[in-house]
């Protein structure tokens, strides 16, 4: 049934949302993507997203969310604030309510293009403390958006309950392992692909990939 419908993917050009983009292309008749320009420390992130969307033939809308910089001071938008993640505290990359805002704007855009399906790569498993990445929040927002716009949105979160290793497996199952590995930008230091190897994002990404490659190496018969 979903094959007849249209979806909008919240897309950053990173591993998670690129995997979601491949997932959505399998699930829906038509897929668009939306990227948010909020004054990211690395402008390359936007260019990376544009390049991937163009290569996959996916229409991409870049929305100006530079107002986020007026609302908050953090390491993603302020180059003078270092990236730190202390145990039990929110990482310094946190933009309060960011996913809430992004999903809400994506919903307005989606309704405008006749899409009731929204896809986001948020995940509770590698939970960094972002409250608006949690499943309860997404379900709550789904209801709110439906009431706000009198529409039957369905927010899809294919990564919600899987870890980074399983996200690599999903990309592989979608035939996109090499593409995701080589073309996406996760690194906080702005290095596409395997990244700098030192920042928290690179460490998480690499640990997941190595864990997945070990299971893959264990034999194809283990794979579904
Ligand atoms: Zn890095």
Automatic annotation (TrEMBL):
The keyword ATP-binding applies. It is an enzyme of class 6 (ligase). Pathway: Purine metabolism; 7-cyano-7-deazaguanine biosynthesis. It catalyses: 7-carboxy-7-carbaguanine + NH4(+) + 2 ATP = 7-cyano-7-carbaguanine + 2 AMP + 2 diphosphate + 2 H(+). Its EC number is 6.3.4.20. Pfam families: QueC (PF06508). Binds 1 zinc ion per subunit. Its cofactor is Zn(2+). GO terms for molecular function: ligase activity. Catalyzes the ATP-dependent conversion of 7-carboxy-7-deazaguanine (CDG) to 7-cyano-7-deazaguanine (preQ(0)). Belongs to the QueC family. Homodimer. This is 7-cyano-7-deazaguanine synthase. It comes from Paenibacillus haidiansis. The gene is queC.
């Amino acid at each position: 049934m979903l094959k007849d419908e249209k979806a909008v993917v919240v897309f950053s050009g990173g591993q998670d949302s690129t995997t979601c983009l491949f997932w959505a292309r399998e699930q829906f008749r038509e897929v668009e993507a939306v990227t948010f320009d909020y004054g990211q420390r690395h402008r390359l992130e936007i260019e990376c997203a544009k390049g991937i969307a163009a290569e996959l033939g996916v229409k991409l809308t870049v929305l100006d969310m530079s107002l986020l910089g007026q609302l908050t001071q953090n390491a993603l938008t302020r180059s003078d604030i270092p990236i730190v993640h202390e145990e039990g505290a929110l990482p310094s990359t946190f933009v309060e309510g960011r996913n809430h805002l992004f999903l809400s704007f994506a919903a307005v855009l989606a309704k405008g293009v006749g899409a009731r399906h929204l896809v986001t790569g948020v995940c509770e498993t590698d939970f960094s403390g972002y409250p608006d990445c949690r499943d309860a929040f997404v379900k709550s927002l789904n209801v709110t958006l439906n009431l706000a716009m009198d529409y039957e949105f369905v927010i899809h979160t294919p990564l919600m309950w899987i870890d980074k290793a399983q996200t690599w497996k999903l990309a592989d199952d979608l035939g996109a392992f090499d593409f995701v590995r080589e073309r996406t930008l996760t690194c906080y230091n702005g290095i596409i692909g395997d990244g700098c190897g030192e920042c928290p994002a690179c460490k998480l990404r690499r640990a997941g990939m190595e864990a997945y490659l070990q299971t893959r190496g264990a034999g194809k018969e283990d794979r579904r």
